[in-house]
């Protein structure tokens, strides 16, 4: 394991989120739970066959089977990436970006009709538009994703109902870097973010001990509101924790500018302390 622990361990709780819905159909009468907690946990969102096909698709993209695909990002500290081959290369990748148009197996997951029906419901019936797709692969030693709100990354009006969907391609648990959520934190509104270990909420602003870990089996999903505070610690195990993440906004959303976003979320821009 190559990861470096550069943050307080008590930023992340080990207490598991209690409510897990069986499948996507159960989400249809749980909008009030989503509105209260800022997230829903689904035990089985896609089949094991589709998780396996997705893992193969991710490996194919990492292995260079689709020459035009350029969205591979590595964990820090791996030297010359062109020298990395096979399993060593796959285990060095932190994320893939913008892959849906490069692989039909991943494309069909992002546009799954059962999933989009839930996303639309959580947007109060608006039509979802996929605007970001990533694979977050957190290999053994894979680095922390500090606490943040996804809205701090997106140039959209502040009241846009952005929905994030995170699908576990293999079991995620407290040791290999399952996501941590602050329940109800979307109701606190936008938080200032700072460029520290990442683009993140200041560690001193995190309500320590209130967060929940969200372990998921392969094929499970976590669906959250764009203002819900979340993050994930370093992967301290020798197991991988591969996941897909999709972000949707209403198709009618008009983009804003980075300046407008930073006027709200940019802690340093606003002269705030961290
Ligand atoms: O997958 C992870 O560990 C973190 C994902 C996340 O929170 C993000 O990219 O917004």
Commentary on this structure:
By secondary structure, this protein is an alpha+beta fold. It is 19% helix and 23% strand. The protein has six helices and 14 strands. The strands form three sheets. It has an eight-stranded mixed β-sheet. The protein has a four-stranded antiparallel β-sheet with strand order 6-13-8-11, with no helix packed on it. The radius of gyration is 18 Å and the shape is globular. It binds 2-oxoglutaric acid (AKG). 2-oxoglutaric acid is lined by residues 136, 138, 145, 150, 177, 179, 230, 232, 243, 245.
Name the features.
four-stranded antiparallel sheet; 14 strands; single chain; eight-stranded mixed sheet; Jelly Rolls; 274 residues; 6 helices; binds 2-oxoglutaric acid; alpha+beta; globular
- List the total number of helices: 6
Q: What is the fold-level CATH name, i.e. the topology?
A: Jelly Rolls
Stretches where pLDDT is under 50 for at least 5 consecutive residues are none
- Largest sheet at a glance? 8 strands, mixed
Topology of this protein?
Layout: E1 21-23, H1 31-37, E2 39-44, H2 48-62, E3 72-74, H3 86-90, E4 93-97, H4 104-110, H5 113-122, E5 128-136, E6 145-148, E7 163-168, E8 179-181, E9 193-195, E10 199-201, E11 212-214, E12 221-225, E13 230-232, E14 243-250, H6 258-265
Parallel strand pairs: 1-2
Antiparallel strand pairs: 2-12, 3-4, 4-5, 5-14, 6-13, 7-12, 7-14, 8-11, 8-13, 9-10
The structure holds 2-oxoglutaric acid.
Residues 136, 138, 145, 150, 177, 179, 230, 232, 243, 245 line the site of 2-oxoglutaric acid (AKG).
